[in-house]
Design a protein that fits this description.
This is Dihydrofolate synthase/folylpolyglutamate synthase. This protein has 15 helices and 17 strands. The chain has 451 residues and is α/β, with parallel strands linked by helices. The longest helix has 17 residues.
Length: 451
Amino acid sequence: MVAHGAGVPAGGPGDPSSLPSDAILDRLLALHPKLIDLSLDRMWRVLERLGHPERALPPVIHVAGTNGKGSTVAFMRAVLEAAGLKVHVYTSPHLVRFNERIRLAGTLVDEARLAAALAAAEVANDGAPITFFEITTAAALQLFAEEPADVLLLEVGLGGRLDATNVVERPLASVITPVSIDHVEFLGDTLGAIAGEKAGILKAGAPAIIARQPREALRAIERRAARLGVPLHIAGEQFHAYEEGGRLVVSDEDGLIDLPRPRLVGPHQIENAGLAVATLRAAGLKLPIEAYEAGMRAADWPARLQRLPAGPLVARAPAGIEVWLDGGHNAAGGQVLAAALADIEDRAPRPLVLIVGMLAAKDAGTFLAPFAGLARELIAVPMPGDHKGQPPEAVAAAAAAHGIAASIASGVGTALEGLASFPAPPLPRVLICGSLYLAGTVLGANGTYPD
């Protein structure tokens, strides 16, 4: 199994595998070295053979961090598009199909263009060892260079300093979302070390917009910025974002802006939306207030506290049960998820049941700890496909250690069916979480495809 942000999530039912790009992606995955050594050497080699597409990109807003990258990008995209701008977007991993990672001027890349770009990158690489994320990022940069746009929102895959996206020399702005402990095998086992890797995207001459951080992480970011002379815009210092009267208020050096509450659910989305607004303003983009207002109402990001509509999978749950989905999988993700569910509980009380599947490399105990006293029950399920998951027994034991009643089911559908015996009323609120790979399979099984 390759690292998060560098691998291919299982698509689940309804995900065809006969498209030309799938065969190319399978071949590219086979080039992946047995051990990942984070480096930009392989990227530079392929980019040179492709004619250096990284030098022909639209203005880039580069986004690193542990949590909240995708939501922050979604808010920026919604605002920019509401202003009438053409926006490229690069995110990872995908949920159901690979083309979700690449959005060209507002539209997910079509199969013909994707296959052609992947094939060109494969030829340029000439069979040499290269990570899946590196070679597919090279293909994405080629596509972004070929299609005119006003802005490219470029999300880091893993870390920052040696990430495949860190080939942009002069971004319009750099962004670091909240940093927490994750991917310690690649980035280090302290907040300072991890934040130092994330801060590797900072570039001289480009403003850096920084979300609220633990003090140790912020110090590491500040040290990197000081060495480069990068101007910092730090949440809680140079800008502030908060909810007041059901509205989002953002204040910075350009003044105060009063906006609708973000469409995305959860108190943490106030922070993400505020970071997005502060970034666009610090980058010098003169956008009308109407674009910010429309963007807050329109922003969408699948598998981030997403209420699942009717579908084949949801239909397996007893009628009247709420089903939600989130890809959260680390300690910080557990904290924001639990806070969001507590907020929902305050407004509309229901017993909370968690359905959880997690990768083997993740810490189930720290992820589940914030749900102690909030979740009534947890049902552990195995990871789908060939992903190396934690045994459901281990996830159930981690839940029990925090006082959460736990059981095991063979899959998400079976877990939903088992809720027929849940004592009611009221019927429970179900949150499926623990992995973006699991979330992608759930979306595919329910026919709820992104975009």
